[in-house]
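[scheduler] slot 2 assigned
[scheduler] job type: sequence-to-structure, two independent chains
[scheduler] chain ordering preserved from manifest
[runner] begin chain α
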Amino acid sequence: MEEDKISILKEPVTQIKGVGNSRAALLNKLGIFTIEDLITYYPRDYEDRSRIKEIRELEDGEMAGFKGIIASTVIESRPRRGMTIQKVLIKEENASITAVWFNQSFLKNVFRVGEKYIFFGKISKNYNTITVQNPVYEKLNNNGSMEKVCRIVPVYPTTAKLTQNVLRSIIREALEVAAHELVDSIPDWIRKKYNLCHIQYAVENIHFPKSDEDFRHARYRLVFEELLRLQLGLYYIKNKLNTSKGIEFSKDIDIEDFCGILPFKLTNSQKKVLDEVIGDMESPKVMNRLIQGDVGSGKTVIAMAALYKAAKSGYQGALLVPTEILAEQHFKSVNELLSQTGISIALLTGSTGKKERAEILDKIETGELDVVIGTHALLEDRVVFNNLGLVVTDEQHRFGVRQRAVLSQKGNNPDVLVMTATPIPRTLALILYGDMDISIINELPPGRIPVKTYVVDDSMRDRVNSFIRKNVMEGRQVYIVCPLVEESEVIEGTSAVQLAERVSAKEFSGLKVGLVHGKMKPDEKESVMKKFVEGSINILISTTVIEVGVNVPNATIMVIENAERFGLAQLHQLRGRVGRGTHQSYCILYNRSKSSVALERMKIMQKTNDGFLISEKDLKLRGPGEFMGTRQHGLPDLKIANLYKDLDILKKVQEAAGEIIRHDPALKNFSFLFQEFYY
């Protein structure tokens, strides 16, 4: 019987009444393929249409519901070609309101004088007239049951050509089909102890709650289950790694020999983290450690030390990075240091030539190469290691759990070290990296001069441009970052291509202006970046491809166009491209938004350079979905939980997970909760 239940949920959406191939294609765009996907496609918001007002009580600007009698036929006007306006007068006792729609001529055949309707929409009062634009409407019937009004109505993330009403109707139909077919995966003792409602009740009331209380019970249950799956899955991975026999790297390889060739001294924070890494490498368990450090805190040198330890112990090391530009930079810095110690290093990216690639692949397989630095090219099947002992991943948020696993599987339980310059609040880190030990470098190298940050609008452009020219004439370099590659009719924002054309001809004529963006070929990007690094380009106009890892100490000004279009964490990453040399650096944010969230972000950027504080604020302002989508981590999507707002639920979940693990350490009776994501 249980198999029958599961099969119904796994049926394609075309099994739902009203869903043909074209509508299924629209649902597929939203990631909805099965009936189960439909009923777990949770609303992003709700409209409370349950409270109905008298027409005379309606207030200007509010979203409100009201009832009335149709007092006129629908009058249609045609103000211009391609546009029609429909109006109808609605009365109730001594008050009246005009409903207005656009391009809905069919309404002439809908309303009849004397019929009673309930409407819901945005109210507008102007002198003695009251109007409601594009209201939702439903005819008052004898049985009193209403679908569009007089209730709390879900609002879903949707796509073009798929309206809210259509999506609501499809999901309502899916709930009917799946009625009583959902099997509750949470044991009765947990549900009882933590006051969790049944899954069927939860799913029905998250979509169409009958009251606020029903909604709260439903959401609490679904958030609890989602976070429990995540916690148990991450515990399973960590436990599996801890019980796997790892590599014991040689204690005879003295890491002080590596530190002796460094042109600088490690900070106390770096020393502490390095001790943790070396301790892991020399232990019999598999290292699975995350290094968090703010921009410029010196994470790469820890990775170099680990690669040195691995190579000198007779193993190969791999360093996986997200972009070719960053791979090139890492190769240059790692090669300069490690080649002094007799360690052989190669670079493997998508643009590596055919002949060179074949040679590198051969040397990786025979073990002639000690360290390979590369992009996603390292994940290809034809990359076969002779004796892979250490996997290092830089900018971890660009890779997922599964991608990390692909590289790890090219060795026999190699140690894993991952790094990120995106500071993550501790609470979120424990969830996203619950399978890892976490090290934090919270100290910048001595001599770093804090970047001065200013928020401006277009009225300051001439002054900013003069400041840029003055700095360039003094020998400095400048980044200008745009949110778009090319102009868009859909999104308002400065485009890199158009800005580069304009400023090189006008504002910065006579200066050398370069352009780099994600649509360029890798070798073109690399050529431009090389010129900027060498100093033959004064001003680099770019999209966010320079967000990560690019190191040009001579660049002292970072200008960000349409700063309101970026999250705090991203603004902080971009600001981190400057302030790397001995000169005072500046970050100039052009803000065109008056929204409270945008203004709050700008204030925070001006007040602090502390990446961890900024990440906390970013999480609070935007929530974890935008801050750092779990899909990027290879973890199951958080469809409903908000790790910032649901901390109280998370604490209960962690308590429940602890109880489960105490009774069943291997999770033999609970693997069904998370096996879909972690096996």
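[runner] end chain α
[runner] begin chain β
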Amino acid sequence: MAKEKKTLRPILAEDLYGYRFLGDLNWDGKGKKAAFKVAVSDVEDNSYKEDLWLWDGKEVRPLTFTGKVGPYCWEKEGTGLVFAKAPTDKDKARQKEGKPFASFYELALAGKEAKPLFTLPITATGLEKLDDGSFLFTGLVDLYHPDYHERSGQERARIDEERKDDKDYEVLTESPFWMNNVGIVDHKRVGLYHYDPQTRRLSLLSKPSIGVSGYQIDKDRVFFWGEDQGLVMKWKTGLYVVDLKSGKQRPVLEDQARFVIYGFRKVGDGFVMAAADNSHYGMNENPKFYKVDVKDGTYELIAQPDQGLGGLVATDVALGGARSDKGDGDYLYYTTVKGHDGILCRIGLDGKVEEVVRKAGAVVDFDVKDGKVIMSGLYGNKLEELYVVRKGGKLKQVSAINEKALEGKYVAKPKALDIKSEGQDVEGWYLLPQGYSKAQRYPAILDVHGGPKAAYGTVFFHEMQVWASAGYVVMFCNPYGGDGKGDAFSDMRGKYGTTDFKNLMDFTHAVLQKVPSIDPKKVCVTGGSYGGFMTNWIVTHTHFFAAAATQRSISDWITMYGVSDIGPGFADDQTGGDMFTTAGVKKLWDFSPLKYVSFVRTPILIIHSDCDYRCPIPGGYEFFTALVNEGVEARMVVFHGENHELSRSGKPLHRIRRLKEIESWFDKHVK
């Protein structure tokens, strides 16, 4: 008798609630145990709870249970942790009224409860404990009151009242004036603070006008990098050093206005900087590696591997904070995308680049101590887990935090399909529904990644699995403009909607040829950010697709000017246009899908968020209005309070609603 084949349960949108997201991974001072944060959905509060967990060398276990853990660091001796309590709604209301504060707690690993340590009058974004028992913090600086933390209680109360009176107003003097997932940043910076618990003195180390991007400790001095912004951000990063004892600060590089600095680390007896001058490939240029003489500010090019620093293979199941680089011993370790995989590399002062972890999937976060690497990753089409790196880059999984989340569920395996298109090698994949039969006919979805400097791979992607479980063949690929293949491949300046469009259409037709069970009259298309732009471009240039869902998109490069947090120069950089010349405006308009809206016949769902400051919502409203006036079937769904990250880190209920809106729209038109 033939054995009956077990039917697996479909993956549903709501399964997201059961996923755990790892982040902020840190070894203790000896590299024997590691702490990290785990976030889970809180459906009742429509938010995420974050707690501290520990890997003690043998197993993982939670350390806190409140769901309210913010930035944290190890005690230097490794016996405990210091963390900031995440603000409650009441706390957030106080902070909105202009009362910045952060409460810190100490948690002994052998103890049961965290004990209050101190409270500071800043909004802290990160912390690290120094050898002498003092702390470094990154935190917000208000340029109207940069010395707020030094004022007396009475003076701070007066400033608080002023801010409270001004809460219904915004005064803008800078560009850009807001930042996605942050809000208004006019006259606000991220500063570097030092706090001594013995003297209770909190000092701002960085010049108030510098927005600090990162820092590197070297004994009694701290190097940090960031832009000393005037009224207009130039997207150029200076490197500075401050002496912790004297408080004296000075610029380091002989040319402070040349680079965008992505990382600066102590390596051996020197320093390595990853930086780009954007002189060859514009704002998306990959960084080069330089050896820096911090005494005279000179620098020497040691490597140009044509790789990004940081970056992640596209997914919607990596929520937590992730490190992009770290110095350890004689190497700078860094994550990058190569091909369609997220890998870990290292480079020494000699400029030699080595691959530490190269495996199908993606490194999400990592830490390294004395050459020992611990990391979280997405491998084997599974959710995030914790791994330690053995000799030869082999990985040993040391957690099973997400194992049960997919137990008994149908997880479609990506099937590779690579093509040649317009002289480009285009990597792609497709997912088949459970029980796929050549005798049936199936609808399909083409999913276009964001970026455009991003990449799809073989990692688990919740939205795609939901669609495959719902009976769709899901197609996705890496067209021209993406990450992982070097600057020349990702250079989209003046080419939007050309080679990339042809690559996507050629890949779609290749999948249809490979999987003839797909009904060519029932193929849908969707994408977000650049993928949203591309969805708009596709429906304004072909009638092939039965339905479309465009998300957080650009429809008009002209109206994007001055309202995107990338800055007014981004549209010019990417299109070759210019807002202030007739020919330049024409070029911006020629690259705008809105120009071609009269061609559209495809029913379109528009998803946008009213706090999206990367691709602001006016572009969505414009596109919707034009479609309706052209008689095209259209539906626009606006998510209040969400930003550009809705699909990846939006509130849990909103993420589910988004998925249901898309699936319902496609079902209506092809099922």
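[runner] end chain β
[qc] chain β: The two ends are 36 Å apart (CA to CA).
[scheduler] slot 2 released
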